[in-house]
Write a structure and sequence with these properties.
about 375 residues, alpha/beta, 3 domains, 5-stranded parallel beta sheet
Length: about 375
Amino acid sequence: MGTFIEKILKKEVGSVATILPDYIVINDGVSHTAVDEISLVFDPQRVWVFHDHDVPTGSPEAANILRKNLGFAQKFGCHYVQAKGTGYQYMLDEVIKPGEIVIGGGSHGSIFGAKQALGINVSIPELARIVETGRCSITVPESVFVTIIGKLSEGVSIMDAAMDFLAKGYDVKGKVIEIYCPTLDDHQKAVFCSMVCLTGAYTAIVVDEQEESAVTLDLANVKPMVMMPCATRAEQVTAKIVEKSELEGIKLQAGQIGGYTGGTIEDLRKAAELIKGKKLACGFRLSICPATSRDYLMALDEGIITEFIDYGAQIHAHGDRSEVLQGAGAMGHKEKLITTGLYTYAGAMGCEDAEVYSASVESVIQASITRNI
């Protein structure tokens, strides 16, 4: 058994493994719909329920989801986490240990691979069954090995590197991406692991030993990238990604820095460094959304939040702000937003006719100065 997933599941590729997850995650994003199908909870201590997307709730619908999730957690005695920020980032920072298995109903569970834990995304009906039975069975998938070499150029981030990987269209759908990346720090590993599964990969995991790689990514060759607007959420995984230079001159009304791809303390420090001596463009709205309460408090202690306020930015509640349908940060008709969030489908950030572009912290800050991509 040579691959990471074979070792952690103690089964060979192609065989069936029964998984007893250490944690099962439910939030107010997509996975809350599983609550409607759950009639019992096998082990409440393994189930973590987060309110982390629409914080504070910006619509009656969001408030109903909050009450539903809270009632579910209270009824069965599950962990309920509110006001701690993005659930996956909180668990990565505070809870998860190497070798553990985490089941979720969203699309970013592979973030736990940065800590050599196995994060698996499942369908909503399957998530409900796992909560009720405490286990699930999977056919062990094949692995694709990726080696990351080189160093990022000035003004280029790991988010650009992940988009570069996505844009190349590697054949990894349904497979585990095992990543050898000794030059990346913990935050960079988390961003890359989570984002590369937008390819349709089963999950992604950082490994300690280099294998013969199907893919080698040289960071020195990566350019600033942008994920383009798309029509629907279902089309998000196929949203076009281009080099930022192809879009220069597009006028923008707003920018957002937040989530685990832009709101961690590492990203907030980078953003604060980039605005020194600069001036926010007149009429441009810049939102800062720390990923977790921990990131927010550290930014306060370091004076970073004050720097953002002095720059003219708006500080929003910590949490996952990649979708804002209504309330603070929502876009108006025909407005254009550049964000570190990963959803660019029509309506993801307010009005259906608003355009959303996804890019790095460096690209968002540059846009806040010039009002252009």
